[in-house]
Amino acid sequence: MYAKYIKREVADLNGTGRTQACYKMELTPMTHQQFVSLCHREGMMDESMILGVLSLVSEKLALCMAEGYSVKLEGIGTFNAKLGVRDDMLQDAFEEGESSRNAKSLMVNGVSYRADKNLISNTDSKCTLVRGGESRLKKSPFSLEERIEKAHDFLKSHMFMRVPDYVRLTGLSRSTAAEELRKLAASPSSGIMSRGSRSQKVYILRPEMTI
């Protein structure tokens, strides 16, 4: 069976003024039961045993990660828990000797997975690609100055702005919006700055803009 790849247009990240091309596999969903049935067709176990093994692996993975272990499964990959804050607040500043958070305000909000190299090479050896379609960048109907003005107006009535908010305001694709916000936050003249990092990153008005 062949897998299709999609050629995607992405924002210019090198300052050349030209968009870039990247490639992504077109994914077809496979349910848990379909995967179990596929394994069953190999004839090694009946479906109930396969379901039991998968359930046990899931349960014990959760238990081990909850206890702070980084779990490595040979041929599959390494799993570990990620933490975040429970409420929708700005990320804490790190000040030595001060702590405004306690354990009850934190939660496991994700699982980090790093694929085993053997799984990657095995997948590559079994993969035969054919061309699918193309995905073009979503262009904004607004100029950069108009987009900045829209961001300012939004932040005057909201505590902070996230990338999805900027996407809705400007009509940009998510990747382009994220890159543009990163550049705006790095430029004091934009009036916008960032707080936090990764999934907790938000954008706010610079102090001089709120006076």
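The above is record 1. Record 2 follows with the same two-line structure.
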Amino acid sequence: MNIARHPANPIVVPGKYDWRKVTVFNPAVIIEDGKFYMIERTAESLTPCKNFLGLLESDDGVHFRHVVDKPIVTPDMLGFPYGDVQDPRIVKIDDTFYLNYALRPCAMNYYPTGAGVPERSVPSYPDGWGEKPEHWLTRSGILTSKDLIHWEYLCDTTPLDINDRDNILFPEKINGKYVLLRRPEEYVGEDYGTEKAAMWITYSDNLIDWEEPKALAKAENEAWEFKKIGGSTPPVRTDKGWLVLYHGVDKDTVYRVGALL
């Protein structure tokens, strides 16, 4: 694969609305009725970095405009007003859009220098929430929509007592089952056959009840996959099999893109 940086980059920049005034990144894109639709991850602040999801459209995949002037998904909608919603991945199966997302119950504090480890911005939730360590773990789920603007919660796709993100649906059923990629952080060690967080695959008849995941791919390159790997985009069917773009994270937390077939 030969990949070149587009001369029009950056194609989407922060600003215009308060909820995206600081940064835009990690988008999902889908083509529908001849248009490109982008679901952007945004932030209105770095301290804390509370994230929202916005919706843009484009006729050519380069020049984007907002469909609505408000976020289409917020952590508040998911019950966590002090958290942030991250890493959208979108597919359409039959007449329904399915959006994978990661939800952090608390936002993080980031600093423009990039030095050091981000600090948590730990809020105080009512009714005892936050008293247990697992309350602060990243959980993943699925939202559904018919129009890309109005979204409804469908399910959590992973257990709530582990960090599990990079959950990505295949864009079609395989052998009558829905298929999901995962990246459980705690599935490491001798019992799991990998020393670093890896990519796993699981199946479901109904999108709600998921089978035990099976290991799919693990980090093999010490240089650019030093810390972990995880899925990046929905798999693409080709005449040679399923193409999966994934990311590797090196020891300096630099992300790079790889490909699996």
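The mean pLDDT is 92.
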